[in-house]
Amino acid sequence: MEQGHVVAHVARDAEALVNLLTWARTGVTTPMYASGDQRAREIEDGARQPVGALRTDLLAADGRLAEEFPTCRMSAGQRPCGRHGAARCPPLRCPGCGCARYGSTPST
Question: Which of 11, 30, 48, 107 has CB 3.0 to 4.6 Å from 23, enough for a Cys bridge?
């Protein structure tokens, strides 16, 4: 897997977790992805972006997720969303964050 694919995957994963946290907070069904095909297409499209655009995309998606975590923890607690409860979202993000933290992001 190329670095661009890893970065695009981590960014889409952040957005998917925002969807789960939104579901938990509001009770409105918001799946991680509309479909597996959509997920794959968005990762492929993202992987083709220039390095600067990939970095901007990742930081924006991660920022949205960082904003959603505290809101959901305070208001939703353990309310289930999809297969995962809101409390499971931070541990789900850890593998993705570790991937970005340990050298998988492209150099600028």
Answer: 30
